[in-house]
């Protein structure tokens, strides 16, 4: 006979928010166990809200990765990115506010965001994660961890603070247990076995964008958007045709490189990443298009899925 406890199924939305580059995407990938969100050493990598779904025997946890908070938004695209955070907070059952060891946000420019967070803190289950604790003994003394904990404790005196390492899986099981403990009884929101709410084309776009972050410098990664025009899968391989949108002719030249060297490198790296993600052979064609000010063009942003 089954006990009541075994019959209970829990489900809910757990949304990861925080400043740029603290490791939000690394955390969702490690919790979900798949590379659903791209990771780079540069800030403002994530542009969309991305769901990652974890099924347990008696629970379904729907994690959301979100873009990092921005103090200033220069483009319409960035304002939409900030809207994703707000929207994600509306449906959140649990908020994982992620920050990192040794980072203190004491300047006045953070005031409005910290106040905004205080409001959320009052109305939601709110856990504070101090990430990158694997840096203790390498980059930081242990006392920096206590200073970081004390700093956040003063801002959110009633919230639990959990030190973690998303990269090295430190305290991950503990975090998962805490999350399941806080979730309410609910049937699964998504069919069991779903990984994400995003399309196959979306993942192709993101993998190519990730490789651009690694290959190109300065403003280039921030000025590009990828649009996959064709995605055809058969039993043996996937045929993909993707366009890289840039803002200026000079950027097109940089993306292509002398005699196509850079775009060839980009193609090879992207194929590797896409093949790893889909576990299939990939044939990829890349094209570069110039579209001035796409980051402020409502119609284009809509086409790109913003
Ligand atoms: N040492 C260490 N580095 C980490 C850890 N988690 C993430 N990083 C690194 O931090 C950098 C940023 O990671 P992301 O996961 O892209 O950070 P993010 O918060 O999603 O960044 P945005 O999308 O730009 O807001 C990458 O170089 C990661 O490898 C961690 O636990 N330890
Ligand atoms: Mg990210």
User: CATH superfamily membership of the largest domain, which one?
Assistant: P-loop containing nucleotide triphosphate hydrolases
What bound compounds does this protein have? guanosine-5'-triphosphate, magnesium ion
Number of strands: 9
Q: Topology as H/E string?
A: HEHEEHEHEHEHHHEEHHEH
CATH architecture of the largest domain: 3-Layer(aba) Sandwich
Query: β content, as a range?
Result: 15-25%
CATH topology of the largest domain: Rossmann fold
User: Low-confidence stretches at least 5 residues in length (pLDDT < 50)?
Assistant: none
Helix-residue proportion: 25-40%
Put simply, the count of helices is: 11
Shape annotation: globular
Radius of gyration: 21 Å
Distance between the termini: 49 Å
Task: Provide the CATH top-level class of the largest domain.
Answer: Alpha Beta
Q: Could you give a short account of the major beta sheet?
A: 6 strands, mixed
Category by helix and strand content: alpha/beta
Mean pLDDT: 94
What is the total number of structural domains? 2
How are strands sequenced across the largest beta sheet?
2-3-1-4-5-6
Briefly characterize the structure.
Helices cover 39% and strands 23% of the residues.
Model description:
- There is one protein chain.
- Helix 7 crosses helix 10.
- The protein is α/β, with parallel strands linked by helices and 306 residues long.
- A hairpin with a 3-residue loop joins strand 7 (225-233) and strand 8 (237-246).
- The chain folds into two domains: 4-182, 3-Layer(aba) Sandwich (Rossmann fold), CATH 3.40.50.300; 200-303, 2-Layer Sandwich (GMP Synthetase, Chain A, domain 3).
- It starts with a helix and ends with a helix.
- It is globular and about 60 Å long.
- Strands 2-3-1-4-5-6 form a six-stranded mixed β-sheet, with helices on both faces.
- The protein has eleven helices and nine strands.
- It binds guanosine-5'-triphosphate (GTP) and magnesium ion.
């Amino acid at each position: 006979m089954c006990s009541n406890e075994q019959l209970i199924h829990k489900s809910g939305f757990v949304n990861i928010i925080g400043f740029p580059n603290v490791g939000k995407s690394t955390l969702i990938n490690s919790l979900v166990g798949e590379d659903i969100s791209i990771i780079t050493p540069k800030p403002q990598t994530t542009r969309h809200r991305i769901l990652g779904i974890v099924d347990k025997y008696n629970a379904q946890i729907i994690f959301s990765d979100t873009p990092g908070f921005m103090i200033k938004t220069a483009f319409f695209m960035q304002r939409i990115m900030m809207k994703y955070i707000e929207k994600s907070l509306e449906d959140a059952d649990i908020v994982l506010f992620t920050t990192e060891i040794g980072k203190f946000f004491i300047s006045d420019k953070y005031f409005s965001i910290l106040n905004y967070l205080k409001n959320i803190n009052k109305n939601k289950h709110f856990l504070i994660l101090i990430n990158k604790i694997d840096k203790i003994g390498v980059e930081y003394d242990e006392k920096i961890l206590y200073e970081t904990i004390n700093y956040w404790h003063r801002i959110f005196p009633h919230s639990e603070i959990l030190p973690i390492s998303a990269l090295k899986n430190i305290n991950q099981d503990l975090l998962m247990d805490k999350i399941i403990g806080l979730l309410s009884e609910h049937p699964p929101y998504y069919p069991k076995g779903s990984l994400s709410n995003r399309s196959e084309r979306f993942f192709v776009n993101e993998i190519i964008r990730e490789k651009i972050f690694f290959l190109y410098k300065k403003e280039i990664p921030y000025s590009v958007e990828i649009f996959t025009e064709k995605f055809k899968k058969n039993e043996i391989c996937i045929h993909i045709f993707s366009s890289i949108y840039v803002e200026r002719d000079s950027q097109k030249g940089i993306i292509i490189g002398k005699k196509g060297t850079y775009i060839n490198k980009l193609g090879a790296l992207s194929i590797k990443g896409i093949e790893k993600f889909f576990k299939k052979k990939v044939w990829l064609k890349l094209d570069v298009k110039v579209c001035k000010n796409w980051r402020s063009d409502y119609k284009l942003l809509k086409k790109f899925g913003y």
